[in-house]
Amino acid sequence: MRKLEDRIVHAVMGLFCLVTVLLLAFLIYFIFRESLPAIREVGLKGLLLGNSWRPLIYSDAPSFGMRNMILSTLYVSALAVLFALVIGVGCALFLACCASGRQRALVMPYIDLLASIPSVIYGFIGLYIVVKFFEKLGRATGESVLAGGIVLSVMILPYMISSCCDTMVQIYERFRLPSRAMGVSRWYMASQLVLPASTRGILISMALATGRAMGETMAVMMVMGNAIGVPKLLGKGETISALIAMEMGIAEVGSTHYSALYTAGLVLMVMLFAINIVFERLKKKLAKEGKA
Fold first, then answer.
1. Could you tell me what percentage of the chain is helix, strand and coil, using 3-state DSSP and rounding each to the nearest 5?
2. DSSP string, 119-174
3. Strands 63-64 vs 53-54: parallel, antiparallel or unpaired
């Protein structure tokens, strides 16, 4: 009887896994199919390397180059992950090595609550705090890639802290008693033992945070200025997700513009897959080095 139950559970879990894989395959197929007209008409080179986006039918020469949007997406995501990495790892290290279990139980729900706040709220906060701050510094406009990176870094902090903290707590508990017996200071244990041993967990948190940052739309739209140009740190920019959100509603179904927006979504998916593959290989490499 027990073996029959195990088989049923195994079959159900396998079915759920199959459904998930099929959903992902269907999503990729659907987006790729809708992207084909633009790929055939404009070409991958023109879409990926072109620096001009003029999709309107009545323009003299419609163009669908999305190079600047790709660069803006990578730029603002890299800034956000960099800012969040420093703060998130430091916060996780404190919660794991300095805070008591009761203090962690008190603080973690509020950190997780940050992830449930709607992105438009972060956009409003970014407009009235971050953007206004840059304007008070003397800039004509505070909307910029840097403002987008700051707002995004706050949005991805919960993912970074939660993932890192879980890993660090386990490692800290493993080293705590031997370190105390040997008279090792808490700072040394945190910096020389817990932090290096948490590298894989940090990479996982970075992968999650990068995916969240690259897919974010509303908050980025509100603070980056949405200018289709070469992104600069204190200049305006527009991400791929913001481009799709703003123009999908005005694109004529079946037009090259409509198909090009699907191609932009396909490019975003490929970028996310590539980044996840890189992080996965880094984790495997670190695991091999650890075993060696």
1. 80, 0, 20
2. HHHHHHHIIIIIIHHHHHTT-S---SHHHHHHHHHHHHHHHHHHHHHHHHHHHHHH
3. antiparallel
> What is the residue type of 177?
L
| pTM for this entry | 0.86
Alpha helix locations (H) across 182-255?
Answer: 186-188, 195-197, 199-215, 218-224, 240-247
Topology annotation, domain 63-291: MetI-like fold (1.10.3720)
Q: Given CA atoms 191, 85, 282, 49 in this order, what sign does their dihedral have?
A: negative
Q: Point out which residues pair with 64 in neighbouring strands.
A: 53
The string of pLDDT tens digits covering residues 36-80 is 998 888 888 888 888 888 887 555 677 888 999 999 999 999 999
Give the whole-angstrom CA distance, residue 153 versus residue 73: 14
Q: Which tokens hold the place of 11?
A: 């079959």
CA–CA separation, 171 and 167 (whole Å)? 6
Q: Would you state the torsion angle of the CA atoms of residues 132, 69, 208, 291, taken in this order, to the nearest 10 degrees?
A: -120
